[in-house]
Amino acid sequence: MEHPGEWVGRHVDELDTPVLVVDLERFESNVAAMALYCRRQGVSWRPHSKSHKSPDIARIQLAAGATGLTCAKLSEAEIFVAHGVGDILLANQLASNSRLQQLARLQERGRIIGIVDHAEALAMAMAAGQYTGIDIPLIVDIDIGMHRTGVQPGPGVIELARGVHEGKGVCLLGVMGYEGHVLAEHPASVKERAARQALDHLVEARDQLLADGLPCDIVSAGSTGSYDLAATHDAITEIQAGGAIFMDAMYRDRFHVDDRFSTALSLLTTVTGRHADHIVTDAGFKTLSAFHHQPQVLDREDLEFGYLSAEHGVYRLLEGASGPALGERLRLLPGYGDSTTVLHDHFIAERDGRVERVWPLTARGALT
Ligand SMILES: Cc1ncc(COP(=O)(O)O)c(C=O)c1O
Known about the structure:
- Helix content is 31%, strand content 23%.
- It folds into two domains: 4-20 and 260-360, Lyase, Ornithine Decarboxylase, Chain A, domain 1; 25-245, Alanine racemase (TIM Barrel, Alpha-Beta Barrel), CATH 3.20.20.10.
- It has helices spanning 24-41, 55-64, 74-82, 97-106, 119-132, 155-166, 188-211, 227-231, 249-254, 337-341; strands at 19-23, 44-45, 69-71, 87-90, 111-116, 136-141, 170-176, 218-221, 238-239, 265-274, 278-281, 296-298, 303-308, 313-317, 329-333, 346-351, 354-360.
- It binds pyridoxal-5'-phosphate.
């Protein structure tokens, strides 16, 4: 099997399928648009790396003006640090002494900020900081309505923040919250109200921290589905939006993300079976995900998504359609990009149909 690195210069039509393709022109425009938007609003862009897991893409984001990354896993953060990323928000709480000691030691190579929403996790972080002799920078995670993680808004926030500020082995940088529960709200006025209500919890927390003499330099929030609402909200200092660089069907159709971004990621697949009322492709659920949102067939109107089994994609032929020929290629728009990209080892970046670069998903599989 050829290594995808050898595909540079070829036309995408010559590539073995299934293959994950990035339209460079659209991708670059998406990166520039998010960087510019954040700059104009006076907030930092700290894109979540879960959408790409690629140090090459991280470098492009940083060159465009991103001030750092958001990561979900410590092992992921370690990979990005090894590739020169110096400022990372680790947006998932660690609850293990050994992992927190690793986080403390990672401070020697960059600023890797942890989050905390529980007094016991804070106690573990303090122990790790004191054991290693290296202070761990922390921000307090607040549940602003999604009810996934975070301390409840109110006195508990200040109590935890004071614990971080006064605790040995840790230091307090600010607060974060994730408004994931508002993304699919529609119409725009309803979504705006829901986002405002959620993000107001962060403003209140910031105001209370400052009034109590506690530091609050970072107020972090925002995702692709709400980047504009977060970036224009009082007190927010940085936006975590990641997936906008690719823009998938879910962001566009379910979250109504505006036309500042265009779809840049697609999956090329080959028709390997033809039947009376459906066709079969070489991209099943080990290649393409229908989690959260269905993939869409691009550039043609005669097929409808059916289902994915492990190694087969099934698409229904619409009434009267003759459909694609056996061996023909289809271009699919992933439903939720994150759940498809992690199934692949490489992004194939093309411009005008020619492969220009191959980006490995180096942090794929970094799950710890
Ligand atoms: C903590 C956190 N921040 C930000 C995001 C937004 O990511 P994206 O913009 O890629 O949708 C998510 C998405 O799940 C998240 O969990």
